[in-house]
């Protein structure tokens, strides 16, 4: 291959290829700068004198054909005629005193995001300390840029819909809250804690809340979130997340199933316990064999059949209500259907569903759910397991912002 073609592949226009040699698993490329003179970094004078080459710098570049590639850069000594400053030739492709080109360092974050530092170090055949240093420096800059872009998109968005949900740092003890732009599909920020006081402190400290003007906010049935949103954005529509509401009704069905089991024969009890997941699935998603099993399970108790039909009617109400006004009427009919069952377990569920009637019906004003939020929460859980958590809160936040907004990341050299 001609040296000109190799120069094009290297993508280093400031250098000329002089010689190439292969040593075991690495390729050494000897290069020289195209320019003969470099301006003085002190006074910017072009009147400089070359005083020979002190040594050769061995710099790691992008791999090629499964082998490590090193550039042999001459450390050319120069002297300025005007200010008499002494300096060494500066190359744009590599920072001073570094052993890796900027292009090579730009590939390390892409291998580390979604993985670990140790994994990225193995792939790149680079010391873990080097990967850690490069990735940490890149994360600090890139996470701030990504967050600014996501916040700007949310700020100028027409019909902004926010999603709020908590995720565990230590389950049962410490929690954070994620702020999401559902229409734009971005993760905006990590809010420390989930209590009203912690949310209010964040609201006062961070200007991002005050610049946003959401038309709706989707959240679960936690009273603290609804109270906070009602205080800070009274004009925003508060929507109860469909997943959490649906699960509340499904849990009621499973509680009823457990009570019915107590009065059945050992064989029927074992059958109902073994196939309990069939009761929780949507009826239109059951296979033919599951339909047969469902018919058998519902035949064990009339009460179980009534609650199952009540659960399916709720799913149909979510799917088939054509407008907000008709949805409110349909919801009243569904509440009446549950009341006709006349059982304490159902009554407990109905009390909650009646108290949150407005927020649940608001789904039919804007059909948004926190499905994407739950997906990002799973990413955060995987991140915490992969890194055995992160002690540094700033680094922890940067990881979350980058992994949950991966499509916004710029990995390229010089980006």
Automatic annotation (TrEMBL):
This is Transposase. Residues 162-399 form the Transposase IS204/IS1001/IS1096/IS1165 DDE domain. InterPro entries: Transpos_ISL3, Transposase_DDE, Transposase_Znf. Residues 39-83 form the Transposase IS204/IS1001/IS1096/IS1165 zinc-finger domain. Pfam families: DDE_Tnp_ISL3 (PF01610), Zn_ribbon_ISL3 (PF14690). It comes from the Bacteria.
């Amino acid at each position: 291959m001609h040296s000109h073609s190799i120069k094009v592949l290297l993508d280093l226009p400031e250098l000329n290829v002089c010689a190439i040699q292969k040593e075991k698993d690495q390729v050494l490329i000897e290069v020289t700068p195209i320019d003969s003179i470099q301006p003085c970094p002190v006074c910017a004078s072009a009147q400089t004198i070359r005083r020979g080459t002190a040594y050769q710098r061995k710099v790691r570049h992008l791999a090629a054909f499964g082998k490590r590639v090193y550039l042999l850069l001459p450390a050319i000594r120069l002297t300025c005629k005007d200010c008499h400053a002494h300096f060494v030739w500066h190359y744009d492709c590599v920072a001073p005193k570094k052993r890796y080109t900027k292009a090579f360092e730009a590939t390390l974050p892409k291998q580390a995001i979604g993985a670990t530092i140790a994994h990225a170090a193995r792939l790149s055949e680079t010391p873990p300390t080097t990967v850690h240093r490069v990735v940490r420096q890149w994360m600090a800059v890139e996470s701030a840029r990504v967050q600014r872009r996501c916040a700007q998109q949310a700020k100028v968005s027409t019909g902004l819909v926010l999603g709020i949900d908590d995720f565990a740092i230590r389950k049962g003890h410490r929690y954070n809250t994620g702020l999401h732009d559902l229409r734009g599909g971005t993760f905006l920020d990590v809010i420390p804690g989930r209590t009203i006081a912690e949310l209010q402190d964040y609201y006062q400290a961070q200007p991002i809340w005050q610049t946003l003007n959401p038309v709706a906010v989707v959240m679960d049935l936690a009273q603290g979130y609804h109270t906070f949103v009602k205080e800070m954005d009274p004009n925003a529509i508060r929507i109860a997340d469909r997943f959490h509401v649906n699960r509340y009704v499904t849990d009621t069905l499973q509680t009823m199933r457990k009570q019915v089991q107590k009065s059945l024969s050992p064989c029927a009890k074992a059958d109902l316990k073994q196939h309990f997941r069939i009761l929780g699935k949507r009826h239109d998603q059951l296979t033919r064999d599951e339909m047969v099993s469902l018919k058998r399970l519902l035949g064990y108790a009339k009460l179980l059949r009534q609650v199952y039909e009540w659960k399916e009617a709720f799913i149909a109400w979510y799917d088939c209500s054509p407008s907000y006004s008709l949805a409110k009427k349909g919801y009243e009919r569904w509440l009446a259907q549950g009341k006709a069952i006349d059982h304490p377990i159902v009554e407990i569920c109905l009390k909650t569903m009646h108290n949150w009637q407005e927020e649940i019906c608001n789904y039919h004003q804007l059909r948004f759910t926190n499905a994407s939020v739950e997906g990002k929460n799973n990413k955060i859980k995987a991140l915490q397991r992969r890194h055995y958590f992160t002690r540094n809160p700033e680094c922890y936040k940067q990881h979350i912002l980058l992994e949950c907004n991966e499509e916004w990341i710029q990995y390229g050299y010089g980006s």
